[in-house]
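Example with several molecule types.
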Amino acid sequence: MLSPILTVKQLTTCLQIGRERWTVVDHLDFNLYKGKTLALVGESGCGKSLTALSLLRILPTPPALPSTGEVIYQGENLLTFSEKEMRQLRGFKIAMIFQDPMSALNPVYTVANQLMEVAEIHLQLTPAEAWQKAYESLQAVGITQIEERLNAYPHQLSGGIKQRVMIAMALMCEPDILVADEPTTALDVTIQAQVLQLIKELQRNKGMALLLITHDMGVVAEMADEVIVMYTAQGIETGEVKAVFQHPGHPYTMGLFQSRPALTPKREKLHPIKGQVPPFNHLPPGCRFHPRCPYVMEKCRYGTVPEFVVDQSTHLAKCWLHDGTKESLWRWKHPDGGES
Amino acid sequence: MTPLLEVKHLKKYFPIYSGFFRRHVGDIRAVDDVSFIINPGEVLGMVGESGCGKSTVARTAIRLLEPTAGASYFKNSNIFTMTNQQLKQLRRHIQIVFQDPYASLNPRKTVRDNIGEALITHHLVQNMSEQIDWVAQTLEQVGLSPDVMSRYPHEFSGGQQQRICIGRAIALKPQLLICDEAVSALDVSIQAQILNLLLELKETMHLSYLFISHDLSIIRYLADQVIVLFAGQIVENRPTDELFADPQHPYTRTLLAAIPRLTPEPIGFTAT
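Resulting structure tokens for the full complex:
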């Protein structure tokens, strides 16, 4: 196996509001590999975006407290870097694409201004060279009438073009790692397909590692090699996409699949996950999913749940169903069949 | 069978004014010659990309926006020639649920007032105790406890807020419900709950839907008939199964090809 380009160990981020403290990213582990895509998937508020922001250390402090754990890039822990060192890395070696291109681009500068700034800071180019670099970067993301676009302000561009400009900006310095936070959520399906295709191609050409954050299982299937399913700040299932999609191990992951109308015959009742995501100040003890889980057992109600192997060594789920005991095996076949 | 809603050659142009004297220099043709029919008990799906005029079609058809040309019949009476008094009568029978539940509820009114206000306007209740009973019954229909009546919209989660919006719409016992991206802002698991609710209400209250969405998998699941809208015009109007099996218009084909598939490779998903 290749050695990972970025290793994240036990990453934990807390927010402090007044006297209360919430853990919004809870002991997350993952590796990013060159040319591979890891997807973080989950519902809103599960901490996907905060994970990305913690990696790049761009959470506002306060309310965020400094993250603990380790983020190892080229043998060094990014969490111990000074702000100045971080700034040299961001947008250069680790770049990010945000969800909403309108609010991520500066509305009072032209596209050229914003692109040239990146080139001048990180690549130490002269303005003329930077202009050329900006031109080439827009060419690479498939934008036409480049001269015109370069002189435009963000509001003069359509959503798809703005997202392309964002991608161009992120890829200009040929980063090792690209973090894409819901890159296509604000776009139409047809544009989404184009943008995903573009990201895929650029990744193949340049061999970047991609951390893709999304709530759409369809996008995961299309893009990712590995996936982490998050629920209330924790990674609850991780594995190769194929394994997770074919044999989801955690009841929450199964629930996500069963909620999709695409997989249900027409007009038949959908099987949504009952209840709703608990708020951070009322997290249940034990497995955080147990009040909503159709497979709940007595041991789910307290303590912490270790990771168990589902069907192959890389496919893990934080769920007692896979501990191999008789009780769990029985429960696996009898969801909602009364208390066992 | 008399159609519930019949829209004929509907047009809505927004004028563009320019220059010092704000001269009328042209029009944006938001809706350009759109015709369709919704039969009682039917779900009509409407898809298209953002800005193609989906919402404008819905709003103009029921005269929330004044049309430029065309006609729209609700049970054979023309909505576009109605007087204000007749329109008010009509509003009872056609209700609408919007995309963003929080933005469409009055934040300074309690749930009871949000749902119950229209009951007073339409003289469906005579006094407060009748209003409370009616609202309690409505809340139960949308799966909320009647105890929440005195709470304010911000105290609820997005899914619950959308339930309140649906409650407000069905409180008047309408015949047609327009869902303008009603589940787009919700998470998948909550989305499934709301879709179940909408289907349930369709059966119990004999509702018809005009369901606007950009999510093709939802349209495929819900709709009997689908309209594909592109730049203000209908490019395809066919039964759902036919449309998904054999799209005719190039735009529909692009749209269908663009849906991310749920399988990493062409193998069937097997639930364990």
